[in-house]
Amino acid sequence: MLYQSILIKYAEIGTKGKNRFLFEDALVKQICHALRQVDGRFDVSKEHGRIYVQALGEYDYEDTIEALKKVFGIAWICPMFQVEEKEFESLKREVISYLNQVYPHKNMTFKVDSRRADKNYPRTSEEINRDMGEAILEAFPEMKVDVHHPDIVLRMEIRTMVNIYSEMIPGPGGMPVGTNGKALLLLSGGIDSPVAGYMVSRRGVKLDAVYFHAPPYTSERARQKVVDLAKLVSVYSGPINLHVVNFTDIQLYIYEKCPHEELTIIMRRYMMRIAERIAAESGCLALVTGESIGQVASQTVQSLAATNDVCTMPVFRPVIAFDKQEIIDISEKIGTYETSILPYEDCCTIFVAKHPVTKPNLKMIRRSEENLAEKIDEMVETAIAGREIVEIRGI
Ligand code: ATP
Ligand code: MG
Question: Which of the ligands is closest to the CA of residue 351?
Fold first, then answer.
């Protein structure tokens, strides 16, 4: 096993002042959670703006890196040699041994970049850089110094122990889940909403989700697809409670009582109303949707305004200004695309009018909704009370 230790660097959470320890603790917790799926045992600890993952014995290196790449809040993953002995001759031997093991071919340029957190250390950073550089040149004459554009930067951090590393694998960025409250994701079977959930979760927000289905017009397989998408999002976001709401009666009632070109907007307004109720019950402070300006009739600015009209909670629409291809690129990167494009019906598409309004008039929409007065409140209560909750555990 080449590496026993991995240094985790974080960016943004380092700037949180007095609350910093909360962020660090959340990150340690998320790292532990992610590593539970990996073959191996680990000790995860924090020390002065750094988090260390120490492998206790044999472990699966590739899987470990893959798991860490999904932990929000991590900026860089640096596999390293960590040594206790700080005496310079001994450090030289460690660095030579490091380079020998990590780089079989030495035809490359380098520079040494050292930090001295331990100010009692008898050499300054500049002296370490210079003396270690010389030692490397002596051991490997084919290597050359390039301080401006080196192939590798050999980093040395003199702390309680000495960290030696040169590989820096990018993490997903963002903030650790659990540091920014909880939001309810309106999750459909499409491409956009899983991406929206991923993006909000990346800012440290924990997620629950709601899915509206319309059996028998929508199938069990369509429902399963949404459960699968929630699982894929939960790889990043951690556990999700997925609320599955039966929307059939409400849709049929709207279909019966309202002008057909307004169906989609009215339906979406009821989705938002129900979502808000479920959000409030489950401690969520905001809704998340995958809406994007102009994508379909129900996402013109006028339609978005008409849908938003019923919401009192903040609605986060992280892909609002993205082009479809940009959303697809993210969904491919995070691994939801293949599932999203499976061809199962969505409850929205079943009752759509041939010519839905693209510029709904809010007054008219509200008037049409008055036609629902007799039964709609009860139907909403029934839908909420009868919802099924699927617990998705995360990885
Ligand atoms: P997506 O790709 O996410 O399905 P879409 O482009 O198909 O989005 P719409 O069907 O208009 O767009 O839905 C807009 C947003 O409304 C979705 O991104 C999702 O957040 C929410 N939504 C739509 N249908 C449902 C549903 N059946 N259950 C839960 N949320 C839904
Ligand atoms: Mg959709």
Answer: 1
Structural domains present in the chain: 5-170 (3.30.2130.30), 182-392 (3.40.50.620)
From CA 26, how far away is CA 19, in angstroms rounded? 11
CB 43, CB 60: distance < 8 Å = no
Express each pLDDT in 179-225 by its tens digit: 999 999 999 999 999 999 999 999 999 999 999 999 999 999 999 99
Secondary structure of residue 246 in the 3-state scheme = strand
- Strand 109-116 and strand 152-158: the pairing is parallel
Residue 395 CA to ligand 2 centre (angstroms): 25
Q: How far is the CA of 291 from the centre of ligand 1 (A)?
A: 7
31, 8 contact by CB (below 8 A): yes
State the distance from the centre of ligand 2 to the C-alpha of 187, rounded, in angstroms: 9
pTM of the model: 0.91
Token digits of residue 333: 């990167």
CA distances from 129 to 88, 91, 134, 154, 372 (A): 12, 12, 9, 9, 76
